[in-house]
Amino acid sequence: MTEKTATEASNDFWLKFKSERQAIEQQIFQSQSLAKADLASHFNTILKCINDLEKKLTKATDFIPSYDQRQFSMQLKELNESLEKIKIELTPKAKFSFKSRRKKTEAPVAIVSVEQVKSLGKNETKDDELLSDATVLFKDRENTVLTLAKSQIDKNKSIEILLSNLKYCVIFLDSAVNENTVQISAIHIKNVDHCVIYGGLIKGSVLVYGLNYSTLLIGCHQLRIHEAHHVDMMLHVTSKPIIEDSDNIQVGCWNATESINQFDQIEDFDWLKKQASPNWKILNEERQKMLEKEGLDEFKNILNKDNISLKMLNLLPAQNK
Q1: Is the whole model's pTM more than 0.70, yes or no?
Q2: Which listed site, 29, 99, 130, 206, has its alpha carbon 20 to 30 Å from 276?
């Protein structure tokens, strides 16, 4: 039997985690319909399920990308918070009693001065800042061109790129465009609207959590997309792309290397029928040609422009399709 690759193992874990998380959410929801006498046992069962899922996540950290690990951890935290909330709502408070009790020692309250708050603000992440030796963030920008600065690049190391809360931007991350030779191991995209992203060929994964009315050109090993709507993509991906909670996705073939390209083998986790998913389709030939051949030239023309809005109209997907 052939061993699973790290990408396949990561995708399998994602499916199992999602299924178990949804089962736990259903158990929490059903708490309201149970008799009070059964609640304690029910809550203990839910807590055990959450703890078991957390253990599974810990064991899977060897092959799960770091960004996914953080997302899974946040979801586990939300499950614990939901459980505590429903317990408070449904568990009757202890009756009043005159029995003497030892006074609990109150935990000291931390007092934060205005000066401390100001200093915390100064330490907040700035746009296109180097978060660490291996992570660069582009955040909260509009109507601008974003590229990697030379100060952010160490040719001897690979870096991860985080794109967050961007609108009407053109993002250049490929060495063929910005004349840098940096190696990118992963790109994370979150809450990006009306943007054109030229990622070039990267070594690892592209993970999307919120992408709307945008165009993506990328070559990667793994592509996972959540909550994307009206997105055109030119892809070279060596494993099957995955979409979830997404629609109006159009994909084209970008032959970035001689390796296998599974751009048209998209797995839609919201569409389990044998028929083709209605949430994605192949770009028409004219659009593919424009993005692959003419698009890069147009990207280069935009680089030195202050006002990019008009130039981007041809690159962004049509909003009325």
Answers
A1: no
A2: 206
Tell me, what DSSP letter sits at residue 181? -
**β-pairing verdict for 170-172 and 158-167:** unpaired
The owner of tokens 């180097």 is: 130
Burial 31-68 (b: 16+ CB within 10 A, else e): beeeeeeebeebbeebbebbeebeeebeebeebbbebb
CA atoms within 13 A on the CB side of 120: 6
Which strand (E) or helix (H) includes residue 182? none
Give residue 3's pLDDT. 60
CB 177 within 8 A of CB 196: no
pLDDT tens-place string over residues 82-95:
998 888 888 765 45
Mean per-residue pLDDT of the chain: 77
DSSP 106-167: PPPPP---HHHHHHHHHTSPPTTEEEETTEEEEEEEES-EEE--GGG--TTSEEEEEEEEEE
Of 71, 19, 79, the closest CA to residue 207 belongs to 71
Which region, left, alpha or beta, applies to residue 140 given φ > 0 means left and ψ of -120 to 50 means alpha?
Answer: left
